[in-house]
Amino acid sequence: MKHFTSVHDVSDIKALVKQALEYKADPYKDQRLGSRKRIGMLFLNPSMRTRLSTQVAAQQLGMDAVVFNVGSEGWSLEFEEGAIMNGTTVEHVKDAAPIMGKYFDILCIRTFPSLKDRDADYSEFYINQFIKYAGIPIVSLESATLHPLQSLTDIVTITEAISGPGFQPKTVNRKPKVVLTWAPHVKPLPQCVANSFAQWVNTWGEAEFVITHPAGYELDEQFTKGATIMHDQNAALKDADFVYVKNWSEFRDYGMISCTDTSWMLTNEKLALTNQAKVMHCLPVRRNVELSDEVLDGPNSLVTTQAGNRVWAAQAVLAELVR
Ligand SMILES: NCCC[C@H](NC(=O)CCC(=O)O)C(=O)O
Ligand SMILES: NC(=O)OP(=O)(O)O
């Protein structure tokens, strides 16, 4: 693995999931693997889970992690080739990234989309500039279109749940039914988590995968191809074993919100349509907008386990890059 910015960087998903679960069983088994290695973590946007879980993962491998909230504390970066820098940006990524390449062995970056310019966002303009100029492995901590550390975690979480004693598929030998459902929100959010989840589940190939959303919220087909897409949420939820709840803004009418229908919120009434599905969400979650309290606080919620698993996914990825 050279970089970790999408599922395409992974040659064997199942092996990486296995590695993550091995770290969960024995967190310090490779505590010297990353000795004398250092990761830099650049945040152009806020984070709680990604930041803390990746730091913990690095520590468990014996690596140092340096966090830089570049969005709020650093010089504002210029990314445009040939820019005449007589405005508000202070330093070009061409100058900054190679220096970070000297300080660190691996550079991890969070950079959200603008949700204004679809072509620029979907070209992954910002993270690709770091790949071009830093000269060291780059790890996405959520980029303009994808969130691969989250998606690896999600596959780890599903794998763990279906291997456990409590899992009862509807029919024997059936792949688990995984439903990604759109949920309402108060503001336009990136498509990253949904794109990435779809990309990973499709590549993994071990689920019967359904995506449900209101008309107009179709995601980019490059990520969803292979999934069944339905506009009827109740029909989609039937017999689901896992329900992944996420809001995203529109891809076609880019960054827009055309649906404010609160009935898309996942409630216990909707959960009753499923095969006692486990409920997932990447967090942070808007309670009683995306998901009801009763679901989040109820026995079907996997969200805390899922967020806890972020550590093992990050540890597996860092270990692979160090190796
Ligand atoms: N990293 C996980 C999700 C990050 C981001 N959510 C947010 O921005 C939520 C903000 C809010 O609820 O106001 C997203 O959906 O891609
Ligand atoms: N799920 C996730 O990426 O959370 P943070 O935004 O808190 O890192």
Automatic annotation (TrEMBL):
Quote the record's binding site residues for N(2)-succinyl-L-ornithine: 142, 185, 246, 286
Q: What are the Aspartate/ornithine carbamoyltransferase carbamoyl-P binding domain coordinates in residue numbering? A: 2-160
Reading the lineage from the top rank, the first entry is Bacteria
The subunit structure is: Homotrimer.
The EC class name is transferase
What pathway is it annotated to? Answer: Amino-acid biosynthesis; L-arginine biosynthesis
Q: What does this protein do?
A: Catalyzes the transfer of the carbamoyl group from carbamoyl phosphate to the delta-amino group of N(2)-succinyl-L-ornithine to produce N(2)-succinyl-L-citrulline. Is essential for arginine biosynthesis.
Q: Which reaction does it catalyse?
A: N(2)-succinyl-L-ornithine + carbamoyl phosphate = N(2)-succinyl-L-citrulline + phosphate + H(+)
Q: Which residues form the Aspartate/ornithine carbamoyltransferase Asp/Orn-binding domain?
A: 193-319
Gene name of this polypeptide: argF'
Q: Quote the record's binding site residues for carbamoyl phosphate.
A: 47-50, 75, 110, 147-150, 282-283, 310
Entry similarity comment = Belongs to the aspartate/ornithine carbamoyltransferase superfamily. SOTCase family.
Query: What's in the keyword line of the UniProt record?
Result: Amino-acid biosynthesis, Arginine biosynthesis, Transferase
Cross-referenced Gene3D superfamilies: Aspartate/ornithine carbamoyltransferase (3.40.50.1370)
Q: Give the matching InterPro entries.
A: ArgF'-like, Asp/Orn_carbamoyltranf_P-bd, Asp/Orn_carbamoylTrfase, Asp/Orn_carbamoylTrfase_sf, Asp_carbamoyltransf_Asp/Orn-bd
Name the UniProt record assigns to this protein: N-succinylornithine carbamoyltransferase
Q: Give the E.C. number(s).
A: 2.1.3.11
